Amino acid sequence: GQVRDMLANLDIPATMENIEAALNYVENSYNPLKESYKRKDVLDSEKQAEFEELTDSMSDVLDSEESIQEKCKQAEKYMEDSISKDILNRSYEQPDIRYEDLDSLRSLSKGINLSMLMAERRSYDIPIKTGDTITNMNVTIIPSDGDNGKVKVSIRGNSSDEDDVLLLGDVTAEVKVTGESVKGYVFAGERQGYELLKESSDKLTKALETAGFEVKNISYGMNRVSQTDGLMAGKSDADTSALYKAAKIITAHLVSVSKQ
Questions:
Q1: Do residues 231 and 6 touch, judged by C-beta distance below 8 A?
Q2: pTM value?
Q3: Which element (helix H / strand E) includes 4?
Q4: Each residue of 98-114: pLDDT tens digit?
Q5: What is the radius of gyration, based on Cα positions, of the chain?
Q6: Is the dihedral of CA 251, 252, 253, 256 positive or negative?
Q7: Which residues of 83-96 are buried (b: 16+ CB within 10 A; e: fewer)?
Q8: What are phi and psi for residue 39, nearest 5 degrees?
Q9: CB neighbours (10 Å) of residue 6?
Q10: Helices assigned H by DSSP within 121-228
């Protein structure tokens, strides 16, 4: 099914833990960063401020593989900290920790592990702050040969009421980069999202052109696109700088449209 495909495409070992975490990711849009962010109050105020700063800056460094990988490692540390702090606090307050709490901490820990394996394979969960919550956006870089390849960006499963990004519904953008030229598509799950994205399509084209890309064609549609369709990421030594550059532009564009 979708879960096994996701792991196989990203070349992640199908261990019991990874399958459980991937199932949670695919079916419930589970995002460890979002969950840790909800619990950030367990950290001291200095750590909280650092965690805030980190979540704010992740999409800014998307144009460099080295920087985004580094940020993911930092995020892992804060997530791990918030788990251990949480457990410690609870064990002081209540010697017998509730099964539900234990279970949610276990899910978190498996989720963090999966998210790090994904990041190593150029599939990044980028937090987008909306109000007091985090919206999950996945950015996957898929090199083919030379400096060519694909960039896939998806926003999904944002169902909380205060979420501005809900306006867009689930969104998938997939762009193929060949040398300097770019073509691709953007699908929105909701009519409103489709209209918003289509209206602002010139902005995306301009942003890509300003960065030196030649935009062949980007088409817009309404559709439900599965998140892991046709992803063949993995580890390769391709020159991915153009792909990261395109990814950062598309991400910034989707965020600005969602916050209109």
A1: yes
A2: 0.86
A3: helix 2-9
A4: 777 778 888 999 999 99
A5: 18
A6: positive
A7: bebbeeebeeeeee
A8: -100, 15
A9: 25
A10: 191-199, 201-210
